[in-house]
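Example 3.2
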Amino acid sequence: GGDAEAEGALGLEDMRRELSALKVGTQEIDVRMTTVSFSVCDYCVAAYTRALSTHTSNVLWRPPLPTAPHPNGTAGSKPSFQARIHQFLDSAELHANLQEFALPGLWAEAGLSPPEPPGGASKTIPVYLFDLSNEELLLFDRHHQVVAYPDMVLAVRTRAAEALVDFQCGRHVMALRPHDVARPLLAGVLQALWAVAPPSLAWDAADNAAVESHLWAVGLTPFGPLGAGRHLSFVQVDAGLRNLVHAHANASLAAAREVLAEFARFGHDEAPLSAAAAATLSARFNVLRYKLARAARTAAMHNFNASLYFALSAAHEVGGISEVLRGGAEDMATTVTCFQEPDMPLQNWVAVVGVVLSLGYLYMRNLGTFKAK
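Structure, written as tokens:
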């Protein structure tokens, strides 16, 4: 009963339904929840406490209205700025701590088996949600409820009251609900697993970097303080599936580039190969180009099942290219040639003899001059 209530509060059932739109082929997406208390998880406490930090800011304090007239006839204290110390979690520090503590004992204390290493048939992204009973606002880096990394998602939930943020939409000041993390949690999982960028990120060609702009970060989206939905739109689903295809295609290209770079030290690509091996290498390259082109074309038509098939099968051609090149390298033999000093050319000998005779003539001439004197 407790787990079902917690899953409902976190919106895990809605998350399962929304993420099912990102399945391709025979893929399965599973969302599981395991509860671990601080009292039995020393690694959790260590990671959390090491990531706690503080920030001091000036807050406008307004005194409560008096219920009775002041004895001196004054209105009481006036509003004033006061220094307040706020706690927050350093997401980078917490990420490093969880990476350090995950394998030694954190997973064992949680009663879970460690995730498979990258490159396997499945991929597991842990979501570390710190569900606290604090009644004070606690965020990551003072602004975020959820922070996504390529290998994990960090989230924090407290019992604090709503907090106003520095954003307005339609003249309405936006509010942050610290006790409701369902929407940002879905956005964090979408970022970590499918690399879907928030709509507030835009590319600046002048700086050659991503910059934050909230101009279009509105609507029924799970991202950002201006989002107001827990559902994935067509754009986000399309971006997630397209990123999946691009990731596999990029992995094949990176592997092919690595093999060619290793083989480039032998000179021309086909120099050490026999005629049959060179023909096989050319055929493999042509098939690789065809599969990558088909993957891009079918993705443009939103046929992601076929697109993912071509992107995954491109790895087979890369393996064939590597096999052909390594076979050619094995057929190569190492030879050692001793260096022999070449004989001096005849014209050099003539020049040396001429210089010696000239010096001798000058010496004898000077010697005869001294005797005559």
